[in-house]
Design a protein that fits this description.
Blueprint: H1 4-10, H2 18-37, H3 45-63, H4 65-71, H5 75-86, E1 95-96, E2 99-100, H6 107-122, H7 124-131, H8 137-145, H9 156-180, H10 185-196, H11 213-226, H12 230-239, H13 248-268, H14 270-282, H15 298-310, H16 323-340, E3 350-352, E4 355-357, H17 359-386, H18 392-403, H19 418-433, H20 436-448
Antiparallel strand pairs: 1-2, 3-4
Helix pairs in contact: 1-6, 3-5, 3-8, 3-20, 4-5, 5-6, 5-19, 6-10, 7-9, 9-10, 9-11, 10-11, 11-14, 13-14, 13-15, 14-15, 15-18, 16-17, 17-18, 17-19
Keywords: Cell membrane, Ion transport, Membrane, Transmembrane, Transmembrane helix, Transport
Protein name: Cation transporter
InterPro entries: Cat_transpt (IPR003445)
């Protein structure tokens, strides 16, 4: 929260500096006191999940303070904007059908929105582990609880450090690319931060609507790079570009974007079809049309909804179910059909993209997908009850956007009642942390709640 303080000087908005200094100082003071008061102890994976969920809730609450006092937002709207930022979702209550709601935000506030997404895309816990002195089991459990799995380097410290270096490199290259393509420096920096984080916050009231084709091209590249796993990026940097096309996730991503573009192009045009399809699948939320037009039918919205549910690469800044899980589920269906025509004693391993997957892998994947759809359906039904005037396609679209941490919108968010905003907040953090930490958090406090004793 101290990072935007120099920005207040650059933008001549020094009156906003206390809105970052004070909550930052509070967070630092509490952190130091807790650090000194408690000794490190062993924790279970469930405990780590509770800690991670709590950390994300607290940081989003602290992050809402600049919106409350610097932009005149209500507590709920400010928390929504902050949670949408840190979860790299991009749904916003500051932008509506006619542009900015309540006036154009200060540049420092816009930068804070972008910074929150940049931090959220990297991962709050990953950022913490970069400076955390410990590298033992606790650190590994925290890393795993933030939906991060698989090391790039032998050590966890090396892994988090490598992730940060790759992240900084692509952020810088993205900003330079957008600037050279014709975007202003402030907008280029902000859009590169939110693009590589697959977050989608923008500095304009209508997202990317009105920008030129060269800017679209750079933005498409940033979105795709953000949705590719850090492990794949590390392989490419170490071994060359051919590593991109060894990844089954990259292959499927490009194929799905191509198919969706063809399916949409006849109705919405080739440029918008390609841009919106890429934004939906990568979970970025940039839009070449601003809000999704009312003229788009259920078929077009349905295509984007499917892409938003599928998500980007595992171990990337993208969320949703993730492409590798989608691939495993489809591969398992084919594998089951194939086995049905073979003798019972035949040993047929489930092999996808050169990797063999066990029944445990399939069970975990199917369980997560099931939980994902349950949360999505329940969330959608609550929104339908609260906003009966909205069509089913629009509600499913908005709900999938919130839970997939995408940010594309049909306009529901900007007019949503409080209950819908609360539902979307829950979906956003559930989607970012992959549901289980949120369930563990709720279960922990339900279990700890004191119960009344029955009279004897």
């Amino acid at each position: 929260m101290f990072i935007p303080v120099p920005a207040t000087l650059i933008f001549h908005e020094t009156t906003l500096a206390p809105l970052f200094i004070i909550p930052g100082a509070i967070a630092l003071t509490i952190g130091i006191l807790l650090w000194r008061k408690f000794e490190e102890e062993k924790v279970s994976l469930g405990d780590a999940m509770v800690l991670v969920a709590l950390a994300w809730i607290l940081i989003s609450l602290l992050g809402s303070i600049p919106f409350i006092f610097g932009n005149g937002m209500s507590f709920l709207n400010a928390w929504f904007e902050s949670m949408s930022g840190f979860t790299a979702t991009g749904l916003t209550v500051l932008q509506g059908q006619s542009g900015w709601i309540g006036g154009v935000p200060a540049q420092t506030i816009m930068f804070w929105r972008s910074l929150s997404q940049w931090i959220g895309g990297l991962g709050v816990i990953v950022l913490f582990l970069i400076v955390y002195p410990g590298t033992g089991k606790i650190a590994r459990k925290l890393f795993k609880s933030e939906a991060r799995e698989g090391r790039i380097m032998p050590s966890l410290k090396g892994t988090t450090g490598t992730i940060l270096k790759i992240y900084l490199l692509f952020t810088a290259l993205g900003a330079i690319g957008l600037f050279l393509a014709g975007m202003g420096p402030f907008a280029a920096i902000n859009h590169s931060m939110t693009g590589i984080a697959t977050g989608g916050y923008t500095t304009t009231p209508n997202s990317f609507a009105g920008y030129t084709i060269p800017i679209f091209g750079i933005a498409l590249t940033i979105m795709i790079f953000g949705a590719i796993s850090f492990r794949t990026h590390h392989k490419v940097i170490s071994n060359g570009w051919h590593e991109f096309f060894k990844s089954i996730e990259v292959k499927v991503m490009l194929v799905l974007i191509g198919l969706a573009t063809l399916a949409l192009a006849w109705k919405v045009g080739l440029v918008d079809a390609l841009f919106e399809s890429t934004s939906a699948l990568t979970g970025t939320g940039f839009s070449s049309t601003g809000l999704i037009p009312q003229t788009w039918g259920s078929f077009q919205k349905g295509i984007l909804t499917v892409l938003m549910i599928s998500g980007g690469g595992y171990g990337s800044t993208s969320s949703a179910i993730k492409l590798i899980r989608t691939i495993i589920i489809l591969g398992t269906i084919y594998w089951l059909i194939k086995r049905a025509f073979l003798p019972e004693r035949a040993v047929v391993p489930l092999k996808i993209g050169g990797n063999v997957y066990s029944e445990k892998d399939v069970m975990e994947t199917a369980t997560y997908a099931f939980l994902y759809f349950i949360v999505l359906i329940v969330g959608s039904l609550i929104v339908m009850l609260a906003m009966p005037g909205q069509g089913t396609a629009n509600v499913l679209f908005e709900s999938a956007s919130a839970q997939g941490n995408v940010g594309l919108s049909t306009g529901i968010t900007s007019i949503a009642p409080p209950i819908v905003k609360i539902v979307f907040i829950i979906q956003m953090i559930a989607g970012r942390l992959e549901i289980l930490p949120v369930l563990a958090f709720l279960g922990f406090f339900i279990k700890k709640r004191p119960r009344r004793r029955k009279p004897v």
